[in-house]
Amino acid sequence: MSDDFDDFARNLQEQIFEETKDAYGTVAFERWQNPRYMGALNNPDGYARVTGPCNDTMEIFLRFEQETVAEASFQTDGCGSSAVCGSFAAEMAHGKTPDELLDVTGEAILEKLGGLPKEEKHCAFLAGETLQEALSSYMKKQVKR
User: Fold this and answer.
1) pTM, 2 dp
2) Over the stretch 19-70, which tens digit does the pLDDT of each residue have?
């Protein structure tokens, strides 16, 4: 009985994973399984926390060295798509200058992912908006110097 249940559970999980990969694409699926750049940075140079229309909240942390992003990370209390998009936003920020960060938008994140299902696209825009707000917080600190 236990072997039958284990086989059933394993087959069901494989089916769910295949359906998810088909719906979201391989790139998003692999990042969902292994998110990168997740977690807070202590004393970031740029930081933002934004809540999207779906009530997912995303945080982006930026650390700059010589006017380029040396470290970027994210946190979210949202769904898997929010985590995937936050992970890509942080990845796309690495090595960028403030001017180059302006190009890391929701559209750019969707392009990097190869798209998302229509009902999940807002997650990319949440990640892009949060990154832009983190950049804005960094720039405001630079003006005060």
Assistant:
1) 0.90
2) 888 888 899 999 999 999 999 999 999 999 999 999 999 999 999 999 999 9
Distance CA 72, CA 93 (A): 7
Count Cβ atoms below 10 Å from residue 125 Cβ, excluding itself.
17
Which residue type is seen at 82? Answer: S
What is the 8-class DSSP label of residue 73?
E
Residues listed for the chain: 145
Domains of the chain: 25-144 (3.90.1010.10)
Looking up tokens 């949202």, which residue turns up? 78
Taken in order 28, 135, 98, 52, the sign of the CA dihedral is positive
SS3 track for 46-67: EEEEEECCCCCEEEEEEEEECC
DSSP code for 40: -
Neighbours of 56 (CB within 10 A): 21
Question: In whole angstroms, what is the distance from residue 12 CA to residue 8 CA?
Answer: 6
Using DSSP, state whether 82 is helix, strand or coil: helix
